[in-house]
Input
Amino acid sequence: MGQTRTTNPALGLVTFVLIAVLGLFYVKWLPYYDRAFVAAAKHSIGQSILMGTAASPPAPSLDAALGYALAYGKAIWKAMVLGLLLGSAIQALLPVNWVAKVLGGAEFGSAVAGGLLSIPGMMCTCCAAPVVIGLRERQASPGGAIAFWLGNSVLNPATLVFMGFVLGWNWTGLRLALGLLMVFGLGYLVNRMATPKEAQAAQARLAELTANAPTSAPFVRWIRILLRMASWLVPEYIVLILLLGATRAWLFPHIGPEIGNHLGWIAALAIAGTLFVIPTAGEVPIVQAMLSLGMGVGPAGALLMTLPPISVPSLAMLAGSFRSRVLLVVTVSVVAFGMVGGLMAVGLGF
Output
């Protein structure tokens, strides 16, 4: 009888680390290092992807949809490929119980671990979503996975630096203070929402995964998982990006001094920012452009807190990884953080 050839687990681990380090260096760390000098010298990191130099986005149309999708795709495609590679590699190349050991606890510790692990990632909400799917498949706690998801964009150190040079360090302080509360607070809250039944199911699933963990052909499994994730996530993602690109004029009206610091405008822009999708650090030139057109600091503060962490496409991508109630609580909470950010910007005299 022939024997099944097993693969050294260290090979999969080394491969995963190399993909993570080299991929992040190429896609995130090196470009953002260079971009920080541009931000410091020019106090700008480019035009607003939302509407360029115009006072309002283009009217809803096929051209508006395609134009935004192409601009957005050009900005994020490398990070999306990396996210898919890492999300699938977590499930195929890492030891089955490793993720659960680090992020599987139901208390505050897993939320802290998830938030801290997110900081080197610097991914936008949609590019981080495949990684979160991989973490959840390996039984990361809901709160740990949520903290990782939100932390990638909200606590992105490069974005915080860009924000300081472009908008002012007071905006960076506001974003960091509320961002820490958002990432770690919502991570803890989501863990507290987990029921004993869900915790038992997660333990049973982890035991099943451990007992049935394959010991051969991890790279074949990796390719299969990668293709399955891509075939499911990418088409849905493209459709939603096209829809948001086409209808962004409905979410963001003509920008000018008439969009002042009234609570209604702060709430409206907080909701719009939560729904819309942008590339990493895209909120910085968007807010800069809107402030230059005379918009109030209240709506600007709301957008600064709500544009990065979640969006309709990323929520759709993660619909199978979390209960609907969890995603609803996170969505409403992000809107609330946006309103608080707007009110604080007004109250602090930004």
User: Anything to note?
Assistant: The chain has one domain: 10-347.
